[in-house]
Structure formats: C-alpha cells, structure tokens
Amino acid sequence: MSEITLILNAVEQGDSKAAAKLLPLVYGELRRLAAWLLANEKPGQTLQATALVHEAYLRLVSKEDPGWQGRRHFFGAAAEAMRRILVENARRKKRLKHGGQWERVDVEALDIASPMPDDDLLALDEALDGLAEVDPRAAELVKLCYFVGLTQEQAAKELNISISTVERTWAFARAWLFREIQKGQNPPA
C-alpha cells in the first residue's frame, strides 16, 4: 500500500491528525490537476490553481466521514470538488450583480479562440449529472479524461478496466453528452 492510501485509511477511521499529513503528499498532483483545469477555462479567470487546490482540499477534509476508499476515490472526489468550484464560479460570474450580461474582451487576445464559455460549462455540468444517472462509470470516465486531464490509458488504469472498454464508454459518453447539450440549446417548439 502506498503512503497516501495508508493516510487515507487513517483519515477514514477518524484520525484527525492524518489529514494534516495528506496535503503535502498530494499537493503536487492536486496543483497539476488544478492548473490543467484552469488552462481549459476562458481567459480572464480570476481563480488561481493554488486557490482551487486549497478550496477543494478544505471541502474534502471538512466532512465528518469522507469515506474515501483509496487513492482513486480520493482523487475522484478531488476532481469532483474542483469541478463544482469551477461551476459555482461560472454561475457567480453570470449573475447580473457581477456583470453577467457583459462579456470581458481582451483586445490583444481577439485572435485566440477561447476555451469553454460559462454557458457551455453549465450545460456540460447538467448533462454530466444526467449521464451519471444513466451510466455512472461513463460519467466518471468523462470527469477523469476531461476535467482531470488523464489519457484514456491512464483512465483505464484508474478505473481498472480495459482500454477497449474505455474507448467504447468514451464514444458513448461523448455522443450522449452532445445530444443532451444540443437538446438544452435547442428546446423543442
């Protein structure tokens, strides 16, 4: 067992001091994950990778019984916490009180294609929640590949499934999400 797994087990059993030992061990991986997630956000993002890691970590360890079942489950929970923080941030920015009707434009970056707009991120979040109801493993695969930035091979290893299963599940998940997002953008008349 890795040191991280041992500490996660100690945290699960109620050892409050074990949580303090966990952050230094996982900080680098969480920071890399946060930087990757923020790189996919549109320009002008005010949230920094360090702040995202700290906020996600606080959410993870503040629960009475986090119930982590090992390293994979912890990092899955971390990815989910970061996704929720980014979605909350996108919703906050869209509020009229925060200038939600205005779009910030950087004159020097006009030729650069921006990553995912807030509307698309919110639509993806809703569709991903629906996918989790239909096929939880497909939803977890999307989170690992899209939000965490894992390759299909890495996701196969994390999910303990074959690469061909990952490829089939990925194709299904992408098609399902595309259809759901299109439905949301073009409601029936």
UniProtKB/TrEMBL annotation:
Transmembrane segments: none annotated. InterPro entries: HTH_Sigma70_ECF-like (IPR053812), RNA_pol_sigma-70-like (IPR039425), RNA_pol_sigma-70_dom (IPR014284), RNA_pol_sigma70_ECF-like (IPR011517), RNA_pol_sigma_r3/r4-like (IPR013324), WH-like_DNA-bd_sf (IPR036388). One of its GO terms (molecular function) is sigma factor activity. The keyword Acyltransferase does not apply. One of its GO terms (biological process) is DNA-templated transcription initiation. It comes from the Bacteria. Keywords: Sigma factor, Transcription, Transcription regulation. This is RNA polymerase, sigma-24 subunit, ECF subfamily.
